[in-house]
């Protein structure tokens, strides 16, 4: 049984553990307009530098401890989910975790990082800048030689218990991502495939092969299915739309491939369920807005105008 410890979700601001606590020049973190346009056209943006190599190393120290110690890691019981190998197959190992921002100061501060929170305000909605709230965080780690696959999917297929769809994923590489080690891949334009904005049905995420999504694609979508790799350097992030089709192949290199993911929602997104929308968190009654301890505000465009 892991020892009890501070629950960092009770701290609704960055603590100063990963970056300076106070930021006044919020606008310095905005992306240039052409990059925002590129995001809405292609459905993703890649190679945005967000962490220094030193910050990555700081995070990797605790990341690896959590991966190695799993249920012995202090605060383990506060995690929303922890899968030391989500595939169950020792030849295709994928460590996947949610809720680590609750148990460690660096993971806590990462969700408030202005380099990701501020640009997200223009990537949650095409017509107006939005205030940004944490939805949840994730870790995806693929060990050397036998790291598993993440099959093609759209994130919003898994998130329809919250609406409307104004969600965003920020994928941060703590290790360089290459063709050999299981870099994330995107299918450009796939966020515009279904005119009704409905996500594709969930297909088997079996962590061994990528292609189960093909069973639900139309002939036209199959013809447009032209994936490209997102070759992130250490400390770079990609941002992707909730309907972007993405996935990653196995890690057959001799090095680990570890990533941190932060998922945001626009302020105003509501719960569409009377069950807990995240494991180990209280119910947000259907129709009520995500807010409070588990969904902190990480950026409000008004902060940039208030002097
Ligand atoms: O780390 C991976 O390969 C999968 C990540 C993913 O699905 C995401 O960033 O949304």
Could you characterize what this model shows?
Strands 1, 2, 3, 4, 7, 10, 12 and 14 form an 8-stranded antiparallel β-sheet that branches. The protein has a 4-stranded antiparallel β-sheet with strand order 5-11-8-9, with no helix packed on it. Strands 6-13 form a two-stranded antiparallel ribbon. It is globular. The longest helix has 17 residues, at 53-69. It has 307 residues and is α+β, with helices and mostly antiparallel strands. The protein has helices at 33-42, 53-69, 105-110, 114-120, 219-224, 301-305; strands at residues 44-49, 81-83, 95-98, 132-142, 150-153, 162-163, 167-173, 184-186, 228-229, 236-240, 246-248, 257-266, 270-271, 297-299. The mean pLDDT is 95. The protein has a single domain, classed as Sandwich (Jelly Rolls), CATH 2.60.120.620. It binds 2-oxoglutaric acid (AKG). The site of 2-oxoglutaric acid has 10 residues, from strand 7, strand 11 and strand 12.
Task: Provide keyphrases for this structure.
307 residues, alpha+beta, Jelly Rolls, 8-stranded antiparallel beta sheet, 4-stranded antiparallel beta sheet, 14 strands, 21% strand, binds 2-oxoglutaric acid
């Amino acid at each position: 049984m892991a020892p009890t410890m501070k629950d960092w979700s009770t701290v609704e601001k960055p603590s100063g553990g990963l970056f300076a606590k106070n930021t006044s020049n919020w606008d310095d973190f905005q992306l240039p307009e052409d990059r925002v346009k590129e995001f809405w056209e292609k459905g993703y943006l890649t190679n945005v530098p967000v962490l220094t190599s030193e910050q990555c190393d700081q995070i990797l120290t605790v990341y690896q401890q959590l991966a190695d110690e799993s249920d012995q890691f202090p605060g383990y019981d506060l995690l929303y989910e922890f899968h030391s190998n989500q595939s169950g197959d020792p030849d295709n190992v994928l460590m996947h975790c949610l809720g680590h921002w609750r148990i460690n100061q660096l993971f806590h501060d990462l969700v408030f990082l202005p380099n990701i929170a501020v640009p997200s305000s223009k990537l949650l909605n095409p017509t107006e800048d939005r205030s940004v709230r944490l939805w949840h965080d994730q870790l995806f780690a693929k060990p050397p030689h036998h790291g598993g696959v993440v099959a093609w999917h759209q994130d919003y297929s898994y998130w329809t218990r919250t609406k409307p769809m104004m969600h965003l994923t920020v994928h941060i590489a703590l290790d360089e991502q290459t063709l050999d080690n299981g870099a994330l891949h995107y299918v450009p334009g796939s966020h515009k495939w279904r005119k009704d904005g409905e996500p594709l049905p969930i297909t088997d995420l079996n962590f061994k092969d990528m292609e189960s999504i093909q069973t639900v694609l139309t002939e036209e979508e199959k013809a447009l299915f032209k994936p490209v790799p997102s070759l992130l350097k250490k400390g770079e992030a990609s941002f992707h739309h909730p309907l972007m089709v993405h996935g990653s192949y196995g890690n057959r290199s001799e090095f680990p491939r570890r990533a941190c993911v932060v998922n945001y929602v626009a302020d105003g997104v509501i719960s569409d369920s009377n069950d807990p929308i995240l494991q180990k968190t209280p119910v947000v009654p259907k129709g009520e807005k995500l807010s409070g301890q588990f969904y902190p505000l990480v950026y409000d465009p008004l902060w940039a105008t208030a002097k």
